[in-house]
Design goal:
The protein contains 8 helices and 9 strands. About 45% of the residues lie in helices and about 20% in strands. The chain has a 7-stranded mixed sheet with strand order 3-2-1-4-7-5-8, sandwiched between helices. A two-stranded parallel sheet has the order 6-9. The chain has a single domain, classed as Spore Coat Polysaccharide Biosynthesis Protein SpsA, Chain A (Alpha-Beta Complex), CATH 3.90.550.10.
Length: about 240
C-alpha cells in the first residue's frame, strides 16, 4: 500500500523515556526542525516510566510550545517493548517510528526511514549500524563486541536476513505494527528481535538504511546485564517456537 495520494509523509514517533531531562528537549526541538524542513507531518508520543529527574515537567513545557506532542505517564519501569505498545495506542498516523531519547538516533534521518514505507516497498525499515554507511561512535570496545555478538547469535539462531537485529531506530507500517502488538509476548529489549522473528514468519518486507549511532553524552545508559539475559532467553524460546 502506498500513501502517495497525501502531500506530506506522516508518522507517529514513539519515544520511551526514563530520566532523560537533559536530552528530551534537545531531541524534540530537533525533530520539529526536521519536520518543518522536510515537509513531514509528525506526531511525537513520549512514554515516560515515572522519571524522577523532571523529564515529565520538561515535556509538559514543550507541549505548550508544540501542539503535536502527546505524553503517557506510567507508574514504573515496565520495559522498552511495552512502552512501544502503549505508545501505539495513542498514535494516529499511518507509519510508526521508534527511537531512543538519548540523542543517539539522528532525527535528520527520519525522512529516509519513513520513505520506503510511504512509497510502498517496505513494511519495516531498520536504521542499521552494520551496513555500508552505518557506524557506531563513542562506544567502548566491550560494548561493540557485545552488540556484534548478540546480532550474530540472533541471525544464526533465527536465520534472520538482516544486518542489525538490535537497532531501536525503526519505522513500521501501521497495520504491521498493529499485528505485532497483538502477537508479541515480549515487553523489554528482547521485543526488538521478536519483531524480526515475526517479520520472517509472516513475510513482512524489511529493509535497512545506514545510520551513525552516537553514544549518549548526557544522562545514564539503561543498558544492563539483565537485558542481555532476557535477550538470550528470548532467542532460545523463539528458536524453540515458544
Amino acid at each position: 500500500m502506498r500513501y502517495k495520494t497525501r502531500m506530506a509523509m506522516e508518522a507517529s514517533i514513539i519515544i520511551p523515556t526514563f530520566n532523560e531531562r537533559e536530552n528530551v528537549e534537545i531531541l524534540i526541538d530537533r525533530i520539529v526542525s526536521v519536520e518543518e524542513k522536510s515537509k513531514l507531518v509528525l506526531e511525537i508520543i513520549i512514554v515516560d516510566d515515572n522519571s524522577s529527574d523532571g523529564t515529565v515537567e520538561v515535556v509538559k513545557e514543550l507541549m505548550r510550545k508544540y501542539s503535536n506532542i502527546k505524553l503517557l505517564r506510567r507508574p514504573k519501569k515496565m520495559g522498552l517493548g511495552s512502552a512501544y505498545k502503549d505508545g501505539f495506542k495513542l498514535s494516529t498516523k499511518p507509519i510508526i517510528v521508534t527511537m531512543d531519547a538519548d540523542l543517539s538516533h539522528d532525527p535528520k534521518l527520519l525522512p529516509n526511514l519513513i520513505r520506503p514505507i510511504w512509497e510502498g516497498y517496505a513494511d519495516i525499515v531498520l536504521g542499521s549500524r552494520y551496513i555500508k554507511g552505518g557506524a557506531i561512535e563513542g562506544w567502548p570496545l566491550i560494548r561493540k563486541i557485545i552488540s556484534r555478538g548478540a546480532n550474530t547469535l540472533a541471525k544464526l539462531m533465527l536465520r534472520l536476513n538482516v544486518k542489525d537485529v538490535t537497532t531501536g531506530y525503526r519505522a513500521y507500517r501501521r497495520s504491521v505494527f498493529n499485528q505485532i502488538v497483538k502477537l508479541s509476548k515480549r515487553c523489554h529489549f528482547d521485543f526488538q528481535v521478536e519483531v524480526l522473528y515475526l517479520a520472517k514468519k509472516f513475510g513482512w518486507r524489511v529493509t535497512e538504511i545506514p545510520i551513525v549511532f552516537k553514544n549518549r553524552e548526557r544522562g545514564k545508559s539503561k543498558f544492563n546485564v539483565s537485558e542481555i539475559l532476557k535477550f538470550t532467553w528470548t532467542l532460545l524460546n523463539l528458536r524453540l517456537g515458544l
